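ugh ok fine here u go
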Amino acid sequence: RPKPDVAFAHFLVPTGLIAELAVRAPVVVMAHGQDVANAERLAPIRALTRRVVRRANGVIANSEHLATRIGEMTGVAPHRVIKRKGETWIDGLRLFGDFEDRTEVDGRDR
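structure:
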């Protein structure tokens, strides 16, 4: 059975949690909004969301506002998608596809 290079999960809970538990590969999760709203409203979902975000190799938010809400709730700021020299990287993971250029994160050179 082939091992994936990376697992990409849309929504923090439940799919991010499932990826974390089921896949033995780096996990990148993407928050869309309703998953964060659910976590803000429900304590059990908030606890699972913190776990997923803290353990993920990469976290993507679809807006700065959502990234701020995730950071406030979990203490972990989501990584932005960064494109440099024709390759896209998230926290050391090389991704393929067309992504728009974004600014560097935390002043770190990728």
